[in-house]
Amino acid sequence: MSAVTDLDPRRDISLIRERLQLSLHHGEDVGEILRDLAARDPLALADLVVGPRAQPGAGMVLAALEVVDVLEGAVSPNGLYRRLVDLAGAAAPDVLTMAANRHPAASWLVALSRRIEGNDAGRTHLRAAAGHPAFTAACWAHADAGHVNGLVAAAAETGLPEPSAALAAVGDVDGAAQAAVRTLERTPESPVVATMAASWGPDVTPILRCAVGHLRTRDAAHALRNQSKGYPAVAALLDTVARGMV
Amino acid sequence: MQVEALLLGDPGRMPFVGHFQLAFHTERASLAVAGRVAAESGVVPGFRAAREVEDALLGMTTDDVKDRNDLLRRTWTVLADIASCDLGPQGGADLTLLLAARDARGMGIAGVGLSGVWGWSGDVADEVCPLVEGAHPLLGGTGLPKVIPGVLTLDSPVRRVVAVPSHLQPILPATDTLARRCGVHT
């Protein structure tokens, strides 16, 4: 039984709002109240949690994320998560993680990522989208938005070739090179060179030359060398570089 | 005597699967090549087949090339000598190729799997000019020909030759994006 079980969600909404505020003021978990409302009246729940008079703060938003499936039935996901971020304070990254996990194909995640992650935008979204059919589209969307750091981080975490290919597609030679090397550090056999050639054009020499400067390990140098056989000048350079690496 | 060959990429995120491009110069003639092979087979098979074509052409003996027509003949011969298994699952039947050869007396263009061919100065401000129209022999299906195909001869050479593969409509994008849409970055 929650603290509002005896109240009617519509008629007594002001009273429920006061009880929620009081509970949050005392640092109490309001999860039970929100679950009770979710079961009885999703629209009243949405009004209390993301409506114009919603109580801001991490405590309320974290509790709201526990009933987010019910909230999504009452408010469109795009508007819901943007409003939750408005209210979340320190819990904004939790909101983004939830949104990315539940909607990895959503295009609005690009702007939401920018707002929450700043220069690292795309990291959480791409981590959630890895393995999802929308991963490629997400990489391209973040590349179009200039989210280089997020794409490089995704390359390092997933070992997938799409982040570097997406950066190549928008003409970011250095970003593509860095992402390619991070991908190979994680997964040496990941077809980064072939995928970049498919998105950039057949002569990826400028990207490969740039990648040399981002190499940190001999294994990655060997992996890049193995994939660069079709580019003899770069392959020769990588042979020399790999020999000089510890 | 330089010449450049460009082949339009597909629409979408991976426009250049299986694309290859190269150019080289001998004492008497220059050759530019652009093409596409095993493109429907996926990124990696397309990449391998494309690099195989480039590797074969870059290994061609050119010391004793007589003129542009000789260079074109040798190019077809080298391509015919590539093992079909190295050209992807279709064994080269899906090959699209644009060859542009130039010497002191003019320019020759040959190819397979093309729906349109244009000449272009390479300057964004300049228009592209169609080099062939209608049912010209230069336009047709993909795949290595059984006999060496004819050559379109240009008395006034162009700096760049641009082609559209036969699976696409013969329409070029605007010149400000044309080179990039052909996978060429300056």
Structure write-up:
The complex is a heterodimer of chains A (246) and B (186). With 246 residues, chain A is mostly helical. Chain A has helices spanning 13-25, 31-40, 42-50, 58-66, 68-74, 77-88, 92-102, 108-117, 123-129, 135-144, 148-158, 162-169, 173-186, 192-200, 205-212, 218-227, 232-244. Chain B is built from three helices and nine strands. Chain B has helices spanning 43-58, 68-81, 175-181, and strands spanning 4-7, 19-25, 29-36, 96-103, 106-112, 114-120, 129-130, 152-154, 160-165. In chain B, the strands form two sheets. A five-stranded antiparallel sheet of chain B has the order 2-3-4-5-8, covered by helices on one side. A four-stranded mixed sheet of chain B has the order 1-9-6-7, with no helix packed on it. In chain B, strand 2 (19-25) and strand 3 form a beta hairpin. The longest helix of chain B has 16 residues, at 43-58. The model of chain B has no long low-confidence stretch (mean pLDDT 94).
* Major sheet summary line of chain A: none
Number of domains of chain B: 1
Average of per-residue pLDDT values of chain B: 94
Low-confidence stretches of chain A: none
Secondary structural class of chain A = mainly alpha
How many DSSP E strands of chain B?
Answer: 9
User: How big is the Rg of chain B?
Assistant: 15 Å
Which structural class is indicated by helix and strand composition of chain B? alpha+beta
Largest sheet of chain B: 5 strands, antiparallel
Q: Helix-strand pattern of chain A, N to C?
A: HHHHHHHHHHHHHHHHH
Helix content of chain A: 55-70%
Strand share of the residues of chain B? 25-35%
Q: Termini separation of chain A (Å)?
A: 64 Å
